[in-house]
């Protein structure tokens, strides 16, 4: 069984390398983009025909919701605290909102991968737990591949794209001077079809 686990572990690590390679290639494209975000952009949320489109500094409302739900910690940084730290870093250094969201998602992805790989490689866990962890690993890799695929496809229309995911809810950020409702609807349809979630769990935010 140990040999089998080692083989599965190697296969999983190879899959992780492929996913991370795609991620870094994608972020290199973002680095080549021009323009920076202004801190005083006023957020405007518009709900029409069931399509949610918002303009403003990406992440302000998303982070506020996370921080409001964040309880007392035990010393380890929570996902919400990581995002809060990234927001502070952006305010101090003028960091790109898109890069921050991609970085935060990648950090969460790697953390969950490490947790699941730890279960698979630890002989203290029985075969049932190891099998369940492998199934979760497969789902996690598929989700990340789908999100990266959506982002790369949307880059055909927008210079910068990032998708933030939290508890099955997706927020799509695109760089655009203006976003028509029809464009937002197309983006939402793309996410709902690919991720197999209802439209109520997807929102779109554009940043000039």
In a few lines, what is going on in this structure?
With 208 residues, this protein is an alpha/beta fold. It has helices spanning 2-31, 60-69, 79-93, 97-121, 127-154, 181-195; strands spanning 44-48, 51-55, 161-166, 169-175, 202-207. 25% of the residues are buried.
Describe the structure.
With 208 residues, this protein is of the alpha/beta class. The protein has a single domain (2-207), classed as Orthogonal Bundle (Helix Hairpins), CATH 1.10.287. Helices cover 59% and strands 14% of the residues. The protein has helices spanning 2-31, 60-69, 79-93, 97-121, 127-154, 181-195; strands spanning 44-48, 51-55, 161-166, 169-175, 202-207. A five-stranded mixed beta sheet has the order 1-2-5-4-3. A hairpin with a 2-residue loop joins strand 3 and strand 4. Helix 3 runs antiparallel to helix 4 (97-121). The longest helix has 30 residues, at 2-31. The N and C termini lie far apart (55 Å).
Largest sheet: 5 strands, mixed
Number of strands: 5
The helix content is: 55-70%
CATH topology: Helix Hairpins
Strand order of the largest sheet: 1-2-5-4-3
Radius of gyration in whole Å, from Cα?
Answer: 18 Å
Element order, helices and strands?
A: HEEHHHHEEHE
> Helix count?
6
Assign the CATH architecture. Answer: Orthogonal Bundle
Distance between the termini: 55 Å
Tertiary shape: elongated
CATH superfamily: Stage III sporulation protein AH-like
Question: How does the helix and strand content classify structurally?
Answer: alpha/beta
User: Beta-strand level of the residues, as a percent range?
Assistant: 5-15%
**Total domain modules:** 1
């Amino acid at each position: 069984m140990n040999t089998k686990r080692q083989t599965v572990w190697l296969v999983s690590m190879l899959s992780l390398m492929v996913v991370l390679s795609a991620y870094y290639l994608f972020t290199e494209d973002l680095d080549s983009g021009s323009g920076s975000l202004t801190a005083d952009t006023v957020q405007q949320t518009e709900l029409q025909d069931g399509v949610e489109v918002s303009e403003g500094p990406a992440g302000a409302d998303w982070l506020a919701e996370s921080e409001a739900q964040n309880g007392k910690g035990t010393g380890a940084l929570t996902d919400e605290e990581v995002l809060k730290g990234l927001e502070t870093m952006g305010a101090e250094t003028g960091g790109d909102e898109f890069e921050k969201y991609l970085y935060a998602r990648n950090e969460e992805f790697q953390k969950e991968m490490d947790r699941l790989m730890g279960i698979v490689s630890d002989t203290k866990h029985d075969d049932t737990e190891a099998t369940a962890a492998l199934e979760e690993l497969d789902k996690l890799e598929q989700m990340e591949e789908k999100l990266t695929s959506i982002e790369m496809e949307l880059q055909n229309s927008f210079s910068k794209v990032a998708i933030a995911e939290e508890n099955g809810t997706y927020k799509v950020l695109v760089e655009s001077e203006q976003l028509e409702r029809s464009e937002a609807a197309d983006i939402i349809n793309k996410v709902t079809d690919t991720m197999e979630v209802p439209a109520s769990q997807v929102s779109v935010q554009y940043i000039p």
